[in-house]
Amino acid sequence: MKQYLFELFENKEYDSNFERFKFKIPSLRVSLLGRCNENCFYCHNEGVPKKISSTIQTGDIINVIYSLKNFGLKKIKFTGGEPLLYKDLKNLLYKVKHINDLKLYITTNGTLIRKRIKDLSPNIIDKISVSLDTLDPKFYKYITGKDYLYEVLSGLKMLKDYGYNVEIDAILLKKINSAKSSLNELIDYCVNNDFDLQFIELSDETDYALYSKFYADPYLTLKKAGLDFLNDDTNDRQFFKIKNSKITLCTKVKDVCKSTGDRCSGMRLLPNGILKNFYY
Ligand code: SF4
């Protein structure tokens, strides 16, 4: 435990911020492991070097969460690699849910939902975000390197049947999903299933050649589908409501929530136990 918090307290930026602003840490993003069963061409692996093969243990995660509760921790999100590859997931979720006043989120590629559904529960998970950029099997394979679209869609059907709060995360990609017809196909799919939909701007942490090839301006792209998001100074999350689905746009992480600073003061826990500022 001391080892994890060492980075936090030795970090001069946090020292001074805590003293000056009574620094709070409202959210923690835990990368459970570096491994994934897909191979998306834009993957930046949550900033976790692929050579990190370690997997953080449940007891250590719980200790970190209890410590950060003293800094106002309210939200925890499990990511990977692919978090549904984490063997002790059922036990971990159960333990986290018994910590008071904490919202629990998971971000997954959705390929293993059917296999792990017995280890999940809609009463424990406040929201499950599933990455799905396209409904076209050919493009899906092109992006992920795998032929798993059927697994993802059947997993999503299960989540719907069991009453989970689901959000689809779709990265906007030129020539892949940026045409009006592709955008509307994703929107219709989400609206028909009562899923929320979050469009995401391609990160510039992606390889430069790929970034140049696939970057789609989020505001111009979504305008084609009738979603006229404003590019204003505060850039807090705006949304459109279509029936029961909320449609949002997430632009580059560093620009998000400037007015509240909420996400900016979150932290990340890596599979090797290192606790980091959200950006570094
Ligand atoms: S599913 Fe996520 S973690 Fe896995 S390769 Fe794709 S972007 Fe990376």
Structure notes:
With 280 residues, the protein is an alpha/beta fold. Helix content is 33%, strand content 17%. The chain has a ten-stranded mixed beta sheet with strand order 7-8-6-5-4-3-2-1-9-10. Helix 3 runs parallel beside helix 4. The protein starts with a helix and ends with a strand. Bound molecules: iron/sulfur cluster. The site of iron/sulfur cluster has 12 residues, from loops.
SSE order and pairing:
Blueprint: H1 2-10, H2 12-21, E1 27-31, H3 58-69, E2 75-79, H4 89-97, E3 103-108, H5 113-116, E4 127-131, H6 137-144, H7 149-161, E5 166-171, H8 180-193, E6 196-200, H9 208-214, H10 218-223, E7 239-242, E8 245-250, E9 267-269, E10 275-277
Parallel strand pairs: 1-2, 1-9, 2-3, 3-4, 4-5, 5-6, 6-8
Antiparallel strand pairs: 7-8, 9-10
Helix pairs in contact: 3-4
The structure holds iron/sulfur cluster (SF4).
Summary, kept brief:
By secondary structure, the chain is an alpha/beta fold. Helix content is 33%, strand content 17%.
Which hetero compounds are present in the coordinates? iron/sulfur cluster
Helix content: 25-40%
Q: For the largest beta sheet, what order do the strands appear in spatially? A: 7-8-6-5-4-3-2-1-9-10
Q: What ranges have pLDDT less than 50 throughout 5 or more consecutive residues? A: 1-7, 254-261
Percent in strands: 15-25%
Distance between the termini: 20 Å
Number of helices: 10
Q: Report the strand count.
A: 10
Q: Nearest-angstrom radius of gyration?
A: 19 Å
The biggest sheet amounts to: 10 strands, mixed
The structure class reads alpha/beta
User: What's the SSE pattern?
Assistant: HHEHEHEHEHHEHEHHEEEE
The average pLDDT is 87
What general outline do the C-alpha atoms trace?
Answer: globular
